[in-house]
Amino acid sequence: ASLRIQIYCLKYPKLRPSFLTDKAMESAIKYINKKFPNIDFRGNIQHLTSIQRQKSEVLAATASYYDSFLDVIEFRVIAINFDFTKNYLDLIITYTSVIVTLSRIDDKKALVGMFNCAHEMSNGSSDPSYPRLGQMFVEYEHPWKKLTEEFGPHTRSVTAALVSLNMVYPRRNLPAEQWRSAQLLSLLSAPAAMLEPACCNTVSLPSRHLLYLSLAEGERERKGGIGFLLCHTSLNTNQASQELWKMALRSGLYLTLTRDEVLNIHKVSEDLFDCFKGYSKRIADIKECREHALVNSGAMHRERRHFLRGALKELFKVLEDEPGLLGPKALFVFMALSFSRDEVLWLVRHSENMPKIKTPDDYIDNQMAELLFYMEKLRGLMKKYNHVVQRYHVQYLAQFDALVLNDTIQNIYVCPEEESVLMSSFVSNLSALSVKQVENKEEFDFRALRLDWLRLQAYTSVNKAPLPIKDYTDLAKVMNMIQFHTRMVDSVEELLQETSEVSILCFYPRVFEKMFCQSSEEMTMKRYLMAFPLVCTHFSQCGHPICPEEVKAMEKRSLRLCVTFLEQIAKLTSTVVLEICAEQCNLNDQLQPKHCAETISAARHRKQKKPVPKKGEVQKEKPGAESLRKDRSVVTNVDKMHLMLTELCTCFSLCSDFIVFDHIIVPTEFLLSHLEIRLSEIIVRMANYNQTTQEIARPSDLLTKLRAYTASLHSLSGYINVDVTRLVKSVLLQQTQPLDSRGGPTMTTLYTNWYLESLLRQASNSLIVHCPTMHCFVNQTTDNDPSFRAEEFSDISELQALAELIGPYGLKFLSENLMWHITSQISELKKLVIENMDVLVQMKNNFDKPEEMANLKKRLTGGENVLKRMTIIGVILSFRSMAQDCLKDVMILLKHCPYLMGPIECLRDFISPEDDIKVTLSIFELASAAGYTCDIDPTLVTAIANMQTDNTSVDEEYKLSCLLLAYIAVSLPTLALDPNSLYSREHGGHNNNIHCLATAINQLAAAMFTVQNKNIAQQLKEFLLMASSTLLQLGQNVERMESKNRESIYLLLHMIVEESPFLSQDMLESCFPYVLLRNAYREVYRSFIVTLG
């Protein structure tokens, strides 16, 4: 077998040396192929210069191929040394397969010729074996004719061996109707005999293996078809040979040589017999058999597969329920596996080479998954209950077989000494067995006993043997039964491999994938689909150490097929799961309060006369109407999806994990991976973000849908053992990051972009107003309809939903993006301060001198710009503060880590800015991440510290910060000129968002002076003095336009002090009369119209 694999590997381009396709070698290869085997290596050196230049590389690369061809010669020499039937036939068929496969290798002459050429150039002489190898290539140019000549002298022995298959072949070649009528493989057909040990007459065949099990249909056809080609003369003289030959030809059209190398037996036979005289009848027989195979074999094998599906299912169900029956009925399992394997192999090789017939459906099986599934189930059952099989057969060997064998030996009249010693050792070894050995988990090894039995056959099968085996058939029957029973004890795995491995599918990937696709389209087959990836575990058993390159290629192909199947199963399952989730989400959406307006309206007007419904108008169904059933036979779409989900999830129960070429495969992980990807895509899709129109779903709506999805997803745990909680946590955690695991956008990114580009951008232009009273943003009243209602996206419930969706990580990302916009504004503010630095220095030093301040103010430029930018910063910080508060209010962290929140709050309250600033900022960062408000914003401090300062010193930065506060203070009176600066009691702020200046001034000053390690309270106190002075000067201008919204601006000063942790009302009253504030509040509230009930 290893030689056959070795020669097979030489045929494929991927495993051949690369220099065969090298253009530099082209002329040398053509010359060698033309002159082979008589190549003049010295006279025509110009043709072989390329080999001369690379002789060492050529010699090394072709050495292994050359040795493989030499192995074929050695194989030919020992072909007459085997005597036993099966081994002899195996040897003949293997030899023939090697020779035929060798004849199909296109580059064999080039490889051998190049090796010998390089050998002669390196060593000065040709390789000694080269003439024999060249002669073999020439002789076997047309292999079949040469093979028939070689086997002519062996016709008698080969024919005798082939005719012995008459005991096995007809029984294995029965149609499904006869199998069904005989109730083959059924344990329930004879309940009374259920505990009796299964046996078969074919165990009497003197072969090394149990022919009934190990002789696959393909092997039988190969032996019959190829064997009779080699000794074709017996077909004209031996009727039994002719019948067996016809039976083999009628079974199918193609025979397997090696793996996916097939032989069209009818064509080869016809071409060969055309060369001989007197074979016209045999040619007619071939045509008749071919026509019979075309018409009948496809349907016959289809019916066999149909029968085996039911038989294997019944056998598995019985044995699963009563595993103790595996002892007496183990043979049934191996027979079932062997029959099933035969049908799989037949279909595979004929599907790949499907003939042109009227009924191609016979070669298509969309129910192959079920057959493979129960084959795997039976294999698993045998492995799981191996100890049961061992225990039964150890007792059988010791308490029955040993006694029967002893009685049989006693009935032998003449027994030579050597044979007597062997048989006595059989009895003594079997009698010594006990159940305790099984209970103690001792390892059994009966290979020596089986080898002795083979030796005894050799002694008793030769001519004129003192103890001829043919005269003592009872001995052969007993010993072959013992041989089978010993294999049940020590080599169940090996027997399973012989009877059920279908590794041939590795070499027919197209057919294998097609079978999977056909099965996956059938509803009833979905529960069996896991059999396809599990079959890939067989592929590691068909490799051979003699060809490691092929093993690597098979490993890649096996893993590719396995992963492809699992991906498809996972895709089907995840699609159904998410369709069910989508349906449940739609049903849940119908229960939302926003959909009850029609119902409320109808209830209010119930007493009124109902309007006549319009023609064709369909009344809207109430939620829950889909659950009303008048007939149980009515199946809804959801019912179908649940049924499909049940079928798909059942297939995952076949096994929790399996190994393919040392790779541990866990099928459920593929499902979780698919669900993770799809769920992430669905969440982003449900956000419904449109960058062009700047539309997005409300956070509360998305959260409701997401909760419906997760609730429905958790029902998956009832179908299959998967950790749905881990899946949901993984997906939602990814959604709190800027990008998911595949680099795609997340809802964190979408909502961050939307709030920045839509809500805050319009708020910066005063189209949207921050409303402290209602803790939200609201739209300004304008002539144009707004694209969205700001309060629907910024009220407490929406921001709580946003905080729950994107979590602390998402809010951190949102804060970082907000900080980028703030630092951009700070950079512009610094430029304005630098432009007016001289004026600002003078104003700061003379703020208590009204005349000088009036003159300096005329020289000051950009005051409105400064306030506008500070307002933008205030709006951004106000929004961030609202979002942070909702993170704490929604109690997300309190639910996940309730014992952590208390200590965090205590730390925040305990620490003070006067302590070590690094420690303070670390604690503030922790508290800020938990949603707590801090005196100093650590995120803003970090953003300002990271700003590019063009190598300015700390003192210069400090000076700019002080002048910025002065700039703001002296510019405050200009706000009175803006008609939108009017304070609104309804909103609790100003219509142009200047009330956000309070937040901006306090947080920006605290952050800047923290970075510069200066006293925050001192600087804010100076700002308060300067602002109070300028606003008091505003009060003196009674008749000027500046005083129009004077009271509203006064309130701004009060807001700054109220929001500051560093300023107090006492400080304010010391520099700004409280009576002015009281009068200002009375003035602004006087214009507010109060409406009651």
From TrEMBL:
Organism: Dicentrarchus labrax (European seabass)
GO cellular component: SCAR complex
GO terms under biological process: cell migration; cell projection assembly; cortical actin cytoskeleton organization; neuron projection morphogenesis
Transmembrane segments: none
Name of this chain's protein: NCK associated protein 1 like
A matching Pfam family: Nckap1
PANTHER family assigned: NCK-ASSOCIATED PROTEIN 1 (PTHR12093), NCK-ASSOCIATED PROTEIN 1-LIKE (PTHR12093:SF9)
Region of interest called Disordered, as start-end residue ranges on this chain: 603-630
UniProt feature, compositional bias: Basic residues: 603-613
Compositionally skewed regions (Basic and acidic residues) per UniProt: 614-630
